[in-house]
Design goal:
The protein is elongated and about 125 Å long. The termini are far apart. The protein is built from 10 helices and 8 strands. By secondary structure, it is an alpha+beta fold. The strands form 2 sheets. It has a 4-stranded antiparallel beta sheet with strand order 1-6-7-8, with no helix packed on it. Strands 2, 3, 4 and 5 form a 4-stranded antiparallel beta sheet that branches. The longest helix is centred in the N-terminal third of the chain and has 53 residues. It folds into 3 domains: about 60 residues, Helix Hairpins, CATH 1.10.287.110; about 80 residues, no CATH class; about 90 residues, no CATH class. Strand 4 and strand 5 form a beta hairpin.
Length: about 290
């Protein structure tokens, strides 16, 4: 069965160029393709367009609509098969991903249980207890009335360093074995002053400043690079273990917090306690 004049079907003149034929064909296919226009008339017109284009592009005198329709059906069938295969692959991949996530979640929950209930959990709880105790002690010690501890000068350094607040400081040592970073213009005069004392907290003996008598005046100069200066930040570090424990969940945050608490923060706690006799000060409530 003939389709009629292919030029008329495509809406072209007899002298249309190949580029005009392709352009008209694409425009009509977009309009009458069954995926865009599901009507019966559109399907029939689509077949005519296909046949007309094949006549003009391949030099055929007649193109059977039945052949065009069969080609389209074959293409559609292949498309359906490919689509079904894709859906099966997609569903399989989704199921594998779901199983993987489920396995990871089960592993995290089991690992969290080991962290909380096993030897590691007891270790973490111990560090949390020590950290909380030190946090409370630091803040109680901070607000208790300060005490003046008489000291005597032993030596002073000549090298000057810059402090965090822009002051120039030098190292000054007392006869009790402790060292203090004080303003450079005072360090060399401290051995000559009267009534030299370290102003410190009453419990952990954290030095805040040095006080001395200069004639009729009593002068107090702050001590730099001391734990007292970093009091707030140190106390916040000490409560990380209890916070990591309290907000424990099956995720990397608790795992990292537990690891950090058990090693880095515990090491810092031990160093803090066993320097400057703080451990003895803590046990003796500042009496030793």
């Amino acid at each position: 069965m003939k389709t009629g004049d292919p030029y008329k079907i495509l809406g072209l003149q007899k002298d249309a160029s190949p580029e005009e034929i392709r352009k008209a064909y694409r425009s009509l296919v977009k309009k009458y393709h069954p995926d865009r226009n599901p009507s019966t008339a559109a399907a029939a017109q689509f077949l005519k367009i296909q046949s007309a284009y094949e006549q003009l592009s391949e030099g055929q005198t007649i193109a059977e609509p039945e052949m065009v329709e069969q080609t389209y059906r074959n293409q559609q069938s292949q498309y359906e098969e490919d689509l079904q295969a894709y859906k099966q692959q997609r569903d399989t991949a989704r199921e594998k991903l779901r199983q993987k996530k489920q396995h990871e979640e089960e592993y995290k929950i089991a690992y969290l249980a080991r962290l909380k209930n096993g030897p590691i959990g007891r270790w973490h709880r111990t560090v949390s207890f020590i950290g909380t105790l030190l946090f409370l002690v630091l803040w109680i010690d901070f607000f208790l009335p300060e005490r003046a501890q008489p000291i005597e000068a032993e030596s002073f350094g000549l090298k000057t360093y810059g402090s965090v607040d822009g002051h120039q400081v030098q190292l000054f040592q007392s006869t009790d074995g402790r060292s203090y970073w004080v303003s450079d213009y005072l360090s060399q005069n401290l051995p000559k002053v009267q009534n030299l004392s370290a102003i410190e907290t009453p419990w952990l003996h954290q030095v805040k400043s040095l006080r001395f008598q200069d004639g009729l005046y009593q002068i107090e100069t702050p001590v730099h690079f001391s734990f007292y200066w970093a009091h707030i930040w140190i106390s916040l570090v000490f409560i990380i273990p209890i916070l990591a424990w309290y907000f424990a969940s099956a995720d990397i945050i608790f795992v990292a917090g537990s690891f950090l608490s058990r090693y880095a923060i515990l090491a810092f706690m031990m160093w803090f306690l066993f320097t400057e006799n703080r451990f003895l000060h803590l046990l003796s409530f500042g009496q030793l």
